[in-house]
Amino acid sequence: MRTIVVALVSGIIFGLGLCVSEMINPIRVIGFLDVLGAWDATLVFVMISAVAVTGIGFPLVIRRAKPVLAGKFVVPERTDIDLRLISGSVLFGIGWGLAGLCPGPAIAALASMSPSILIFVAAMIGGQWLASRFE
After folding, report:
1. Distance from C-alpha of 71 to C-alpha of 78, rounded to nearest angstrom
2. DSSP state of 71
3. How far is CA 16 from CA 3, 50, 119, in A?
4. Residue extents of the structural domains in the chain
5. 44-70 burial by CB neighbour count: b if 16+ within 10 A, else e?
6. Are the beta carbons of 105 and 18 closer than 8 angstroms?
7. Handedness of CA 117, 22, 3, 62 (dihedral sign)
8. CA distance 55 to 125
9. What is the pLDDT, as a whole number, of residue 5?
10. Among 77, 92, 94, 79, CA closest to 128
11. What is the mean pLDDT of each run of 10 residues along the chain (135 residues)?
């Protein structure tokens, strides 16, 4: 039960952060991605904050023998760059650039009940299902 509560609280904090930073606003995100045009640099502060928290927190957490709510740390073991990683990254980047949303902010933006967000999330889920059929 503790794991579920921690996941819920973490998700709420993450979602609130996305809302406060306006990362659920596709116009803001597309403005950030438009580095050669009318660049909106405000999301740089979101990135700096995330890198700072990770840079300080990760080394402290990984020193522990095991996580507080799990039996062991699950850290990616693969370090190779293959066609699947590159093609997935390209598809993700194209989708992010076209829609101005990626999965986390899209799910947080569902609270707006915006038809375009609902369609995006449905398409995202459909794309994930379709990708799972190719595995």
Report:
1. 21
2. S
3. 20, 14, 22
4. 2-134
5. eebeeeeeeeeeeeeeeeeeeeeeeee
6. yes
7. positive
8. 31
9. 94
10. 92
11. 91 88 87 88 89 93 88 88 92 86 87 90 91 84
C-alpha pair distances (Å), 50 with each of 22, 53, 86, 93, 114: 15, 5, 24, 19, 27
- Which pTM does this prediction carry? 0.70
112: DSSP letter: G
DSSP state of 17: H
Neighbours of 22 (CB within 10 A): 18
Given its phi and psi angles, is residue 81 left (phi above 0), alpha (psi -120 to 50 degrees) or beta? beta
Q: State residue 72 phi and psi, 5-degree precision.
A: -160, 160
**3-state percent breakdown (helix, strand, coil) of the chain, nearest 5:** 70, 0, 30
d(CA 70, CA 3): 9
CA dihedral 17, 20, 22, 24 (to 10 degrees): 50
